[in-house]
Amino acid sequence: MIVLIFVGLILLAHYYLWHRLVRSTTAPGRLRKALTWGVVALMLLVVATFAGTRADFGTWLAWPGYLWLALLFYLFVFLAVLEIPRAVAAVLLRRAERRRAPVPEPVAVLAGTPAPDDVAAGLPDVTPDPVEPPAGLSRRLFLGRATAAVAGVGAAATVGYGVSSALGDPVIEPVRVTLPKLDPRLSGLRFAVVSDIHLGPLTGRSHTERIVRMINGLEADVVAIVGDLVDGSVARLGPLARPLKDLESRYGAYFVTGNHEYFSPGGYIEWLDELGELGVRPLRNERVEIAHQGAVLDLAGVNDLGGASQGDGPDFAKALGGRTSGRSTVLLAHQPVQVTEAARHGVDLQLSGHTHGGQIVPFNLVVGLQQPVVSGLATVDGVQVYTTRGAGFWGPPVRVGAPPEITILELRS
Fold this sequence. Notes:
12 helices; metal ion binding; six-stranded mixed β-sheet; Purple Acid Phosphatase, chain A, domain 2; 2 domains; Calcineurin-like_PHP; transmembrane helix; alpha/beta; 16% strand
């Protein structure tokens, strides 16, 4: 069902673009036919790209396919926004043409003088100039081409900016979180939080190396990787993940699954094993104690909701049950929406990702309908939640209004 809905939306979006960028800008003929087949080819490219990358093949399609998907989206947005100005302009042009039309003057005809039928009827000569196109066609083409030009320039500029943002260095976001129950001796404990790295067909080893280098530069006490590390199998992406073995922190690096780990063609278990070999400890519905300056913090992690279909869903009771009374707890959970269950178990702070901060405006508005926090720090059901925008991207290598992020989060009592 989801696949059918996706294909249907892609079909409708391409039809709308064909209507506005081809039919409204060209006259019937060879050019229109060629452009129409071009739109059909682009639609098939998008479908093939998703099918190929999900099945771990066809990665050569990823760059053209995902870039076109980004252009498709922003062309759709710009054209939709321009619908009202376009309709207003059409009305104004039509009125202007009517005002410019010549007003017929009375014609005196002498009795008995032969005259053409139209003159005899007192009608003006309205035979169209054979050199000029009909007024209606001229107006349609003008509006169609002007709208297409504005939308095209706007979409290309937006996607160009988004590509430079997505492929550039992540922003270092410093955040201080005050936990009322935190032991004062733990005040100043620092977490490097990163999520949604999305190693995949559009990222190279340098992507991971840069993230590791930036995290190490923060000199954090704990590194927390909050899911969606990969988009593929260990066989294909293992070399890209290898730089993670160089992560540096005082008390170690920890990982919880995101929904994309469960999409891996090789299965999620192989990635858990691979991360263990790289020195990153997966927290699978479990917790560890972080001893710092004579005090202890509980660091817990739960599996992503996406694991439920594979018998590996979150188990909050297992991860959080039987804790020492009065000890503060930080929970790693990929999706912010998991905070509802975390609140029932007395968690003080939840660190999440998943949302990408919306990744491309205006998707941030859509994400907000599903998740309680799109990005940044918020309080939900009495629990503080920090949601990072993630250090990578999914799908199109584009970020607009939500630059990639690595967070240095400091606990305060």
